[in-house]
Amino acid sequence: AKARGKNTYRFFSRELNEAATDRLLIENQLREAIREQQFLMYYQPKIDIQDDTLVGYEALIRWLRPDNTLVPPARFIPVAESTGLIVKIGEWIILESCRFLARQHSRGYAVSLSINLSARQFNDNRLPTMIEQIIQRTGVDPSYLVFEITESMLMGDTDAAIKQLNQLKRLGVSLSIDDFGTGYSSLNYLKRFPVDELKIDRSFVKDIPEDRNDMDIVSAIIAMAQKMQLRVVAEGVESEAQVDFLKQNACYVVQGYYYSMPLAEQELSHLTFTIKT
Ligand code: C2E
Ligand code: CA
Ligand code: CA
Ligand code: CA
């Protein structure tokens, strides 16, 4: 038993060690990525399924390594978050995204743009001023900007969160709760937060139309959003059956591979949707 205990210990300590080295490695590479400008923004279309028009995009970051590998955000956002590098990267994301939106508007496209905020970014009291300066610098109309936050960011210090949300709202932007349904927000909480939109998490959408439970959850979220006069968006839509279900339940704005993957700006011109003007 003793020997096994020792082995177990060695196994865990090696695992931990590898994870720590991995993080350190990614952290150093992230610093280099910032210096060498290895980040790119991709944009995923948001479609109004009533008439199949393109109404906006979600900005999603990508890391293109010098060896041409594309690193997905799930691999590096958590490291950027825990090291604080996200503040710098996050500022770049907002600037780059607003420039993109300004270019879309200058072509006459009346599209909105959703930008993800991480917890650390959201908790930074300099965030509203930073966004305000970027809005001024790029000349973008803030009413077309949406900032996505998750329920967990609102749950800690709720008074501070409400204050921050109000500061952001004063800029004229809208606010969306991402991955809705996966956190802990109660109806009571939701009413206190000045948000404009709920984004139904992909985990509830992916098994429609097979999973009756998920269908009930999704229709309940949509009904609740309507009751609270919030916009509702479904993410991760991959099939026609899912589109039909959402349409029947009056959720008209969707995002997902069924319509388009996230794309680089140059690739957006290949899309064939009618764009709102
Ligand atoms: P998220 O905000 O929930 O973004 C949606 C994710 O689902 C994206 O993954 C998107 O590519 C993917 N997706 C969209 N449609 C479908 C679909 O039909 N099927 C499937 N299977 N997936 C779909 P991505 O780009 O890898 O991003 C993952 C997460 O990383 C994001 O989840 C978000 O939490 C974070 N992230 C991405 N970009 C940013 C960013 O610019 N800033 C911050 N703070 N976080 C970001
Ligand atoms: Ca999102
Ligand atoms: Ca999401
Ligand atoms: Ca999600």
From TrEMBL:
Domain EAL, first and last residues per copy: 23-276
The protein here is known as EAL domain-containing protein
